Amino acid sequence: MTHEFPRMTGSAFAPDWFETMAVNASAAERRAATLTTRRTVKKEFQAAWLARAITCIDLTTLAGDDTAGRVQRLCAKARAPLRGDLMAALGLDQLTVGAVCVYPTMVSHAVRALEGSGIPVASVATGFPAGLTPLPLRLAEIRYAVEQGAAEIDIVITRELVLTGKWQALYDEIRQMREACGPAHMKAILATGDLKTLTNVYKASMVAMQAGSDFIKTSTGKEDVNATLPVSLTMVRALRDFRERTGQWVGFKPAGGLKTAKDAMNWLVLMKEEADVRWTMPDLFRIGASSMLGDIERQLEHYVTGRYSAANRHALA
């Protein structure tokens, strides 16, 4: 998979773009609730959307007991996310996930397993998930992952800088991370469950984009609260505002707690309704997930056969 859009250049630090912003949490929650009830997608249209969702998945393993073998099995699933009979029934001749996301020490295993597939390897870095190691070590970890072959780097921001309103410091830190990524695309994980308010989420989103992030991402998956629709709505409106100001297309990645085909549909509806259908393509939209793929495959088998299969017929890795 290639990135259609160039690396983001970001902008100069411009606090006037966000410092007076205040997000109405109740209104955001009401709007998010209507997104999943006002629109329904059924039958062949739902199947098509679920196939699109597969292409947007960052198939992920971020466990303390990850091994080369586990990563290789995950990469095999990334290359062939649907069984051959389902591919044929759906009229698909090629389908892969958006990327495979692993820890830095697992990058080389993933790169070898995905050779020739066109699937990029994404690596978390910068002291994931807390991001509280010294900045020089975080920058060194980014450079290590890129040297190992990662084409995408998922960095974590310092939440303290958001909670204390140190926006210039946050901008400067992310800018250094962006430079350390070199040619790799950078996704800035905001860890929104730690940011306390939707206003903080909006401001952190804008600073991350000004600093040159190619994507903004909701969560590490390790916080108590991960991706939610109100948070995602706030971030999508921030990236829409950033595009209106700069003309730059910044991607969006919800992650953490997204497990079902219904979740995939809900977030695709959010992108289409609040942004643009162009933001439902894998170079601008990713879903950080692992078990979601198995449920999508079950739903597609139901569409093809009219029957639900056991989950163990759709092994992930």
Automatic annotation (TrEMBL):
Q: Where in the cell is it found?
A: Cytoplasmic granule
* Lyase among keywords: yes
User: One short Pfam family name for this protein?
Assistant: DeoC
Q: Which GO terms describe its molecular function?
A: deoxyribose-phosphate aldolase activity
Q: Name one GO biological process term.
A: carbohydrate catabolic process
Tell me the keywords, alphabetical order. Answer: Cytoplasm, Lyase, Schiff base
Q: Keyword check for Cell membrane, yes or no.
A: no
The catalysed reaction is: 2-deoxy-D-ribose 5-phosphate = D-glyceraldehyde 3-phosphate + acetaldehyde
Give the superkingdom in one word. Bacteria
Functional pathway: Carbohydrate degradation; 2-deoxy-D-ribose 1-phosphate degradation; D-glyceraldehyde 3-phosphate and acetaldehyde from 2-deoxy-alpha-D-ribose 1-phosphate: step 2/2
- EC number(s) per UniProt? 4.1.2.4
Record-level GO cellular component terms = cytoplasm
The UniProt similarity line reads: Belongs to the DeoC/FbaB aldolase family. DeoC type 2 subfamily.
Protein's UniProt name: Deoxyribose-phosphate aldolase
- Species of the source: Pseudotabrizicola alkalilacus
Q: Which gene encodes it?
A: deoC
